Amino acid sequence: MAEQRAPHLVVFTGAGISAESGIQTFRAEDGLWADHPVEEVATPGAWRRDPARVLAFYNARRDQVRQARPNAAHKALAALEKQGFRVSIITQNIDDLHERAGSRHVLHLHGEILKARSSVDRRMHYPLPRGGIELGDICDKGSQLRPDVVWFGEEVPHFGEACELVSEADLLLVVGTSLAVMPAASLLQYAPFGAPCVLVDPEAEALSPPGVSRLSQPAGKGVPALVRHWKREGRLWVPEILLAS
């Protein structure tokens, strides 16, 4: 008898899950970009005009990430994986909170702030266990190092890999995202026909596309609640009583 395949949960996380760990979002009124227009710190043009300002901005964000800690949602997903479920996480976030919680399969669509990369060869990455990036820090090819993040207007290099993961999902869990940033927001279109999709977000009622189940709760409350059901039953399903609460 063939071995039964472990249920595969694919999780797509956005800024809302990290916000509960104290990391500012950029869409909130008091968020990350309130005093920093996108055009001045997060575009290739900004990098060409004023690399020192861009580096200073991301150095400050990097310090914020290092001070943050994984919350209950991050920990619940890691615990589900430890119980034997296949859990693949696709995140729009550039922090490492999923990894620090214990998740082993994390795909960062928009890069990782705790890494630097060459400004002439995107394949050349350098970990940043401490400190930041300064003008004059260069890669092995002699070019200035830049943050390993995807800026507005740049290609999302791992998008194809993310689409493949979503196409393999037994259940797609979307957490803490407005589903407004493209192309990431289009990932839901790649889910298998009939695979349930659940959106966990305080604004889920307003944000949820047709056919998506809604759990209008913060990530730190909604995700652990779902995980408790799945661990108890040993399968992925949509608990209607919970979703109606």
From TrEMBL:
Residue span, Deacetylase sirtuin-type domain = 1-233
* Classification via InterPro entries: DHS-like_NAD/FAD-binding_dom, NAD-dep_sirtuin_deacylases, Sirtuin, Sirtuin_cat_small_dom_sf, Sirtuin_class_III, Ssirtuin_cat_dom
Record has Thylakoid as a keyword: no
User: What Enzyme Commission number(s) does the record list for this chain?
Assistant: 2.3.1.286
User: Which residues hold substrate?
Assistant: Y58, R61
**What's the domain remark here?**
2 residues (Tyr-58 and Arg-61) present in a large hydrophobic pocket are probably involved in substrate specificity. They are important for desuccinylation activity, but dispensable for deacetylation activity.
Protein name, UniProt field = NAD-dependent protein deacylase
- Source organism per UniProt: Halomonas mongoliensis
Q: What is the lineage of its organism?
A: Bacteria, Pseudomonadati, Pseudomonadota, Gammaproteobacteria, Oceanospirillales
